[in-house]
Amino acid sequence: MSISTPIGTSYAERATDLVARVNQDRWGSVRPSLYETARVLSAAPWLPEESRRITYLLEQQAPDGSWGEGPLPYRLLPTLSGVEAALAVLRRGTPSVEVTGRLTAAVNRGLDVLRSLPSAGPWPDTAAAEILVPSLVAKINGKLDSLVTGGDMPGFGGPRLPVPGGFHAATPASVARRYESAGSLPVKFHHTFEGMDSHIPPSLVPDVEGLLGSSPAATAARATQSPATTAQAVDDLTAVAQRYGGLFPEAAPLCVVERLWVAAALARAHLPAAALPTVRGWAEEIYDPQGVRGAPGLMTDADDTAMAVLVASLVGLPYDPAPLDLFHNGSHYDCYIGEDTGSITANAHALQALVSHLRRCPRAEHTYGPRAAKLCEWLTDQQQPAGHWTDKWHASPYYATARTVTALARHGGHHAVRAVRKAAAWTTDTQRADGSWGVWGSTVEETAYAVKVLLSAATLTPQPQHTRALDLAETYLRAASDSGLQHPALWHDKTLYAPTAVIEAEVLAARELLRTRRPAACTTADVERTDA
User: Fold this and answer.
1) Which stretch of 270-274, 446-450, 507-511, 517-521 has the lowest confidence by average pLDDT?
2) Based on the number of CB atoms within 10 Å of its own CB, is 476 exposed (0-12), middle (13-18) or buried (19 or more)?
3) Cβ-contact 525, 106 below 8 angstroms
4) SS (H, E, C) 334-380
5) Is residue 521 helix, strand or coil?
6) What string of DSSP letters covers 414-473?
7) Are 126 and 105 in contact (CB under 8 A)?
8) Using an 8 Å Cβ cutoff, are 193 and 221 in contact?
9) CB 498 within 8 A of CB 30
10) What is the DSSP string of 249-315?
């Protein structure tokens, strides 16, 4: 998908077209994952199209020897995965002489990068990194030892790979022992099962329909550990590979997340009448009184549940926020049962959902009013001294800040207003000279989030500097959005990914909000309007 569309196409046409394309795609618009594809390449030699994955692995290595996207700390896990997969193919002894030479060179370059990494990070808070990183280090060292001592593959010099500072070699085994004694592996570990496959008895992982934890890597590891599941794994993985040209994303299908986030983004500007029936159908299908999961095989979670409640409210469905009660811990919402670190954006989405419901159903004030007030207080307490927020599901503070500011501005109150003003000041201070924003460089995605921060702030206290910043941003987005460039990966799973349709919806909405602002700011009604 691309934001680039014919000149003169209206917002309504673009938004309606986007909704239609999302509705037709049962997998979700994300790029293949180097990490995930390398894990399948390593674990599943029985899966067709191995040569395609080997070619992809070699093509994706960066000039410096690393794999992956983003700054070098984000490349740690993909590089470990790439090195280990190349070693696995070499140990099988199946490639041609030419490919063997290229894989050997790739391994050595990757090892050089890994050995030169800083000793103690800091490392990004990506999914289960504390398990996946030491697990891959152990697998790499095991393969290096067997290749070198066996004399089958000379040329891998240097010391064994150390576990990077901040990670612990014993973590995968200790986590596995904890749940072995309990007799089952919690669903939250299914998505990253490949990090514990060497330590978990097959009996602890139940047979599931579709991919284990929505993850190709976990599914391949499970099939290797338990051959009785291999035939089904071939069918399930082949279906995903057909969508991605023999490669794999980190989660499949991702259509629940995609549909909810696209719908909420477009509704911030307005849902075109032509798209409304489709979005209402999404909300009816996804909303679940028992909680919503982002993909089959994952746990139900507060983030997807909050977004389902919000979208249902925006399109006028008579659903209430009761499913969110499953995740409330007294002050805010846990993303899922057993969560280690809380999520700012999941709680911001929950606050938006509560406020939207209360505006439609004032009679629910007694039930949800105090909870919304407490959640507002919790979110303001999490604001960073500079004025922004950060979150574990996204690399950019502009995403977390936009989500939180939108929620606080809609809730209102003295503390919320103060926090929004501080966030708006940080946003204007960090704008780049070309009118864009970005944590690592200018991006249309982050610029769209920053625009929404300033527009939300303008509903409370319009400031002249907001207008100047928004004028610059509008010029930047008009030029950059039509360029058709690939979006940088900024979203967190096991590694970085980019949900293209979601980003497109965010940018479309930001451009429409900029186009319709009068003359300095939108009103609260403008910000919330929808055709529902």
Assistant:
1) 517-521
2) buried
3) no
4) CCCCCCCCCCHHHHHHHHHHHHHHHHHCHHHHHHHHHHHHHHHHHHH
5) strand
6) HHHHHHHHHHHHHHHHT--TTS-B-SSS-BHHHHHHHHHHHHHHHTTS--HHHHHHHHHH
7) no
8) yes
9) yes
10) -SSS--HHHHHHHHHHHHHHH---TTTHHHHHHHHHHH--TT-EESSTTSPEEHHHHHHHHHHHHHT
CA distance 401 to 454: 11
SS3 (DSSP) at 518 = strand
Other beta carbons less than 10 A from residue 318's beta carbon: 8
Please report which helix (H) or strand (E) contains residue 496, including its range: strand 496-497
How far, in Å, CA of 434 to CA of 422, rounded? 23
Token duo for residue 406: 């939108």
The structure tokens listed for 251 are 């989660």
DSSP 194: G
Q: Say whether pLDDT at 522 is over 80.
A: no
Phi, psi at 399, each rounded to 5°: -65, -55
pLDDT exceeds 80 at position 374: yes
List, in order, residues 6 or more apart from 501 with CB less than 8 Å away: 1, 18, 21, 22, 25, 28, 29, 258, 262
Largest separation between any pair of C-alpha atoms in the chain: 76
Q: Hey, what's the torsion of the CAs at 68, 304, 16, 14, to 10 degrees?
A: -40
Q: What is the pLDDT of residues 64-114, one digit of tens each?
A: 999 999 999 999 999 999 999 999 999 998 788 999 999 999 999 999 999
User: H or E segment at 497?
Assistant: strand 496-497
Is-contact 306 350, C-beta < 8 A? yes
CA nearest neighbour of 514 among 465, 476, 484: 476
Residue-averaged pLDDT of the chain: 91
Write the single-letter amino acid at 278: T
For residue 425, give the nearest of 368, 372, 464, 390 by alpha carbon: 464
Backbone angles phi, psi at 165, to 5 degrees: -60, 140
Collect all residues with Cβ–Cβ distance below 8 Å to 260 and sequence separation of at least 6.
282, 286, 304, 307, 308, 311
> How far, in Å, CA of 76 to CA of 80, rounded?
6
Q: Which of 335, 317, 313 is nearest to 326 (CA)?
A: 335
Helix (H, G, I), strand (E, B), or coil: what is residue 328? strand
What pTM value is reported for the model?
0.93
Query: Which two three-digit tokens encode residue 358?
Result: 């209360």
Q: What angle is formed at CA 164 by the lines to CA 252 and CA 339, rounded to 5 degrees?
A: 45
